């Protein structure tokens, strides 16, 4: 075991030495090679719907890994660019992501999709996968439709009431949590926003008494 660790350390030392001695050009070539390898390893071509093209690249010769990285950083811009492209106005097309690609489907197919059974097209499973269920502890969505039934039968019919409650709690939370001053002050805005959101969620789920209990 010690011999293996020693060899690994020597190998790592040699690699680090080569990297330190490499020129900017060599490092750039190495970086491009790594990007292409990642792009190939994360390629989702095999799951692409027949005849559905990928959305056009912003940079024509950029590898797919760059496209996927751009979606991670600038998803809104990517969606707006693809949505504004007349070439895909009434066509199915694909936006590449690292975990799984997104297939964009025009509204004209909506009724057809609605008629499909849940064994073929399951929105709950899709959303669970999108939330990385195995890491966010919502993998129960794969085995139960309880959450969907609660949303459909309890939340949606009373949505107006819940929104009003959340709005009321947000107004009260801003009034009580945000300092009122005419001077510049230092403020941890993330902590304050967290308090506001926590009160809004608590008000809707647990009631007013709990939402104001710090």
From TrEMBL:
The UniProt keyword set, sorted, is: Iron, Membrane, Metal-binding, Oxidoreductase, Transmembrane, Transmembrane helix
Q: Does the keyword Metal-binding apply?
A: yes
Q: Which domain of life is it from?
A: Eukaryota
The membrane spanning regions, by residue number, are 21-41
Cofactor(s) annotated in UniProt? heme
Task: Give this protein's Gene Ontology molecular function annotations.
Answer: metal ion binding; oxidoreductase activity
Into which family does the record put it?
Answer: Belongs to the cytochrome P450 family.
Its name, as the record gives it, is Uncharacterized protein
């Amino acid at each position: 075991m010690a011999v293996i660790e020693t060899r690994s350390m020597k190998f790592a030392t040699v690699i680090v030495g080569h990297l330190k001695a490499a020129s900017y050009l060599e490092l750039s070539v190495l970086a491009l090679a790594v990007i292409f390898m990642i792009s190939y390893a994360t390629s989702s071509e095999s799951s692409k719907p027949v005849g559905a093209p990928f959305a056009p690249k912003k940079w024509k010769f950029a590898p797919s890994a760059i496209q996927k990285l751009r979606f991670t950083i600038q998803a809104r811009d990517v969606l707006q660019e693809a949505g504004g492209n007349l070439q895909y106005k009434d066509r199915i097309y694909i936006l590449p992501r690292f975990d799984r690609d997104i297939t964009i489907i025009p509204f004209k197919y909506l009724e057809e999709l609605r008629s499909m059974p849940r064994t073929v097209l399951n929105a709950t499973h899709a959303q669970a996968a999108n939330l990385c269920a195995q890491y966010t502890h919502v993998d129960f969505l794969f085995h139960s439709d309880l959450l969907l039934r609660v949303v459909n039968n309890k939340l949606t019919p009373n949505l107006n009431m819940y929104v009003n409650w959340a709005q009321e709690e947000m107004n009260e939370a801003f009034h009580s949590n945000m300092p009122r001053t005419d001077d510049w002050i230092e403020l941890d805005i993330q902590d304050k926003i967290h308090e506001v959101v926590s009160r809004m969620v608590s008000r809707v789920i647990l009631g007013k008494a709990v939402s104001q209990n710090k």
